[in-house]
Structure to design on (82 residues):
């Protein structure tokens, strides 16, 4: 008979799904901005001519790295308390 409280593995899966959904939201917002606003992809964000799309793409990648660190820290903290 399954217990009423979620196991540690179930909590990790839930956290992983939430963080994955957040990453997908960020990614698809970036794709939508590039598709539906052509000026976004070519508009320069700095005086050196770096386009907004490039900086936004870096932000998408950075978001993935940050969310990975959040996942690792939270799951390792739970493991340490176990």
């Amino acid at each position: 008979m399954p217990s009423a409280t979620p196991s540690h593995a179930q909590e990790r899966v839930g956290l992983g799904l939430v963080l994955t959904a957040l990453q997908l939201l960020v990614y698809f917002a970036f794709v939508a901005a590039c598709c539906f606003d052509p000026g976004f992809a070519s508009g320069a964000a700095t005086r050196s001519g770096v386009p907004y799309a490039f900086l936004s793409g870096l932000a998408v990648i950075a978001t993935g790295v940050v969310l990975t660190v959040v996942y690792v820290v939270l799951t390792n903290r739970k493991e340490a308390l176990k």
Residues 24-81 form one domain. The chain has three helices and no strands. The helical segments are 8-36, 38-42, 52-81.
